[in-house]
Design goal:
- By secondary structure, the protein is α+β, with helices and mostly antiparallel strands.
- The protein has helices spanning 53-65, 163-179, 220-239, 267-270, 285-293, 299-310, 314-322, 324-335, 340-358, 369-381, 386-399, 403-410, 418-431, 433-440, 446-457, 464-474, and strands spanning 3-14, 69-70, 73-74, 77-80, 90-93, 100-107, 110-121, 125-129, 139-143, 150-156, 192-202, 212-215, 247-252, 257-263, 273-274, 281-282.
- Helix 6 packs across helix 7 (314-322), helix 9 packs across helix 11 and helix 13 (418-431) crosses helix 16.
- The protein has 16 helices and 16 strands.
- The chain has 3 domains: 3-289, no CATH class; 297-410, no CATH class; 418-474, Arc Repressor Mutant, subunit A, CATH 1.10.10.
- The longest helix has 20 residues, at 220-239.
- The protein starts with a strand and ends with a helix.
- The protein has a 9-stranded mixed sheet. It has a 3-stranded antiparallel sheet with strand order 5-4-15, with no helix packed on it. The protein has a two-stranded antiparallel ribbon with strand order 3-16.
- The protein binds adenosine-5'-diphosphate, magnesium ion (MG) and zinc ion.
- The site of adenosine-5'-diphosphate has 15 residues, from strand 1, strand 10 and strand 11.
Length: 477
């Protein structure tokens, strides 16, 4: 039998605030254990949480970028569960009135619906210690620095139909959240985490199968592998007469398999109820408009602009817009009137290669947008050729500097003066009588040889258009 794969993703994105969601503890990563806690985020009896307005604003920003409805009234709820990483015995989350709902994200032309995006507090972390940690560990030490860090949980509809599309969705979502400066998207530091819900159904069937939820993937590649492995497991199970049970499974990167962790709780198991310490709140439409007005142009819009106005191919536009720093840099160069296509080629080719090799990003460059615009300008004027420009590029990126001065100092200017070039071409023709004879006997390809030799004699600095024109004149066709 053939099966369809059905995937819905839940992403926990850490919001870029300086302080936690309900107290004023800092959210900085990498501090000593329990250096960033207070009675509120530890959930001591009698304390009162206060909502961080910035966290709410970032949630609205994210929601707008995901085409969501922003709730006019919203509230917080207690989600009860007991686990040592959560000292209060409940997590403050949002149940029936999430701040954002019913949006969508377009991923490589396919629409994935967003069910909801709600605010919640993160839990602490258990450090398993002693006897080399984890499975041999003798004890676990709770670190509550992360407790109360603001999260936005973004839940998709089960619209994703392959592991690869799941990876693309995550890539696009992370790009978007970085664009709107809501989340730094750092997987290693846990600021962007994903759980994958996976089920299979007979191909074409309208009814969804029973899902499992996979956790513990710490890269997009791992999400893709975990989904593929889980789909495989479910198919084998069903084919051999078994039934998929709703449960939470953990991904094991080393074995490349998922394994059962616990049977899945349903909402009623959590016994959600309205958080009595935080009153329901209104989100004014004026504020939403203000937040909307402060949004940058989003990747989708940039891509269309690059294709339509800059003559960039769809694939190139995708890569350009994917990296906001590069895209911002590119836009600055364009504002200075540079040739859009030339600059796009430079950024995607030599510049990107240079950055990857040196582990740099576009905010760390010595070259300013003006440097690159100047470079495009000298090429446009014919002062230097495109080959020279490409050679000069890495150096400019690394050290910056005045383009015209560098060309002068290094003697890179292209020779365009026709009289001088004519002498060079004539000398080359005179130097290779055998090749000239070949050319005369009809081997037109030898023309390229003369072009190459002329360039060589000019140390690559001859203006190619002028040389070509001279060859047309001097080599009888
Ligand atoms: P929970 O609180 O149990 O995690 P949610 O209602 O928040 O449940 O949804 C979890 C996710 O599971 C959503 O992303 C949803 O799209 C996805 N999902 C629901 N049903 C299925 C299914 N049959 N197969 C795959 N994914 C599913
Ligand atoms: Mg879930
Ligand atoms: Zn605190």
């Amino acid at each position: 039998m053939k099966y369809d794969t059905v995937i819905g993703l839940e992403v926990h994105a850490q919001l870029k605030t300086n302080t936690k969601i309900f107290c004023s503890c800092p959210t900085e990563f990498g501090q000593g254990p329990n250096d960033q806690v207070c009675p509120i985020c530890l959930g001591m009896p009698g304390v009162l949480p206060v909502l961080n307005k910035r966290a709410l604003e970032l949630a609205i920003r994210a929601g707008l970028s995901l085409n969501c409805e922003i709730a006019e009234t919203s509230k917080f709820d207690r989600k009860n569960y007991f686990y040592p990483d959560l000292p209060k015995g409940y997590q403050i989350s949002q149940y029936d009135k999430p701040i954002c709902k019913q949006g969508h994200l377009t991923v490589k032309g396919k629409k994935v619906r967003i069910t909801r995006a709600h605010l919640e507090e993160d839990a602490g972390k258990l450090v398993h210690a002693g006897a080399e940690g984890l499975h041999g560990s003798t004890h676990s030490c709770p670190d509550y620095n992360r407790a109360g860090v603001p999260l936005l949980e973004i839940v998709s509809e089960p619209d994703i139909t392959s592991a690869e599309d799941a990876r693309e969705y995550l890539t696009e979502l992370r790009t978007l959240l970085r664009y709107v400066d809501v989340c730094d998207g750092n997987l290693e530091e846990g600021s962007f985490r994903c759980d994958a819900n996976v089920s299979i159904k007979p191909a074409g069937s309208a009814e969804l199968g029973t899902r499992t939820e996979i956790k513990n993937m710490n890269s997009f590649k791992a999400v893709e592998r975990a989904i593929n492995s889980e789909v495989e497991r479910q198919i084998q199970l069903v084919e051999s007469g078994g039934k998929v049970v709703q449960e939470t499974r953990l991904w094991n990167e080393a074995t490349g398999k998922t394994f059962a962790m616990r049977s899945k709780e349903d909402a009623h198991d959590y016994r959600y109820f309205p958080e009595p310490d935080l009153v329901p709140f209104n989100v004014s439409r004026d504020w939403v408009k203000e937040v909307q007005a402060a949004m940058p142009e989003l990747p989708e819009a940039r891509r269309s602009r690059y294709v339509e106005k800059c003559g960039v191919s769809a694939e190139d536009a995708y890569i350009l817009a994917e990296n906001k720093d590069m895209s911002d840099f590119y836009d600055e160069v364009l504002k200075l009137g540079a040739n859009a296509k030339t600059v796009a080629n430079w950024l995607l080719g030599p510049a990107l290669a240079f950055m990857n090799e040196n582990n740099l990003d576009f905010t760390q460059l010595k070259a300013t947008p003006k440097t690159i615009a100047d470079l495009a300008d000298v090429v446009n004027k014919g002062t230097i050729g495109t080959t020279t420009a490409k050679q000069l590029l890495p150096e400019l990126l690394k050290d910056g500097g005045d383009v015209n001065q560098i060309i002068k100092d290094k003697g890179l200017a292209q020779v365009s003066d026709e009289a001088g070039l004519k002498t060079a071409v004539e000398e080359v023709i005179a130097k290779f009588p055998d090749q000239l004879a070949e050319f005369r006997s009809g081997k037109v390809k030898v023309r390229q040889f003369f072009f190459g030799e002329t360039m060589k004699s000019l140390k690559g600095k001859g203006n190619p258009q002028v040389i070509n024109k001279l060859l047309d004149e001097l080599l009888p066709g």
